[in-house]
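[Q] Does anyone have a clean structure-token version of this?
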Amino acid sequence: MNMQVVKNTVVTLDYSVSDPDGELVDAGQEPLVYLHGGYDDIFPMIEEAVQEKRIGESVIVKMQPDDAFGEYDAELIQIEPRTDFPKELQVGMQFEGVPDSDDEDDILIYRVTEIADDKVVLDGNHPLAGMALVFTCTVTAVRPASAEEIEHGHIHEGDCDED
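[A] Here you go.
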């Protein structure tokens, strides 16, 4: 039986992401598996596009920054003293932190973008922030979600059968 993608199904997608010029941004090495039906496991535009699709069907979704990872926010750039970081520091390393203007509940992942003599530049934006993206995907599997997955609002890896 070739199930349709509907609310409360677990969907597996083979995907790739490129910029509007066709430059590959994410080759989608691993399939994307998510609980379909408004659980915020995937971007809403993609979820809407695969609604009622079947295994083997493909979609192409063009997303503006607001539909994907948001606009680039210059306020999420921080310059910190080099002495606050480990000796072994490289551009691309990531650290958890709290933006200067936010409360302690808003933890971001900051990427090291530059290392000067006594300063480190950190960027709290998602690497794809500010970019329009083209998401191409093919539905490769669809199964009913378990009651536990629906209750928890996300998929469970491996054996999810309840005793």
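[Q] Thanks! Anything notable?
[A] DSSP finds two helices and nine strands in the chain.
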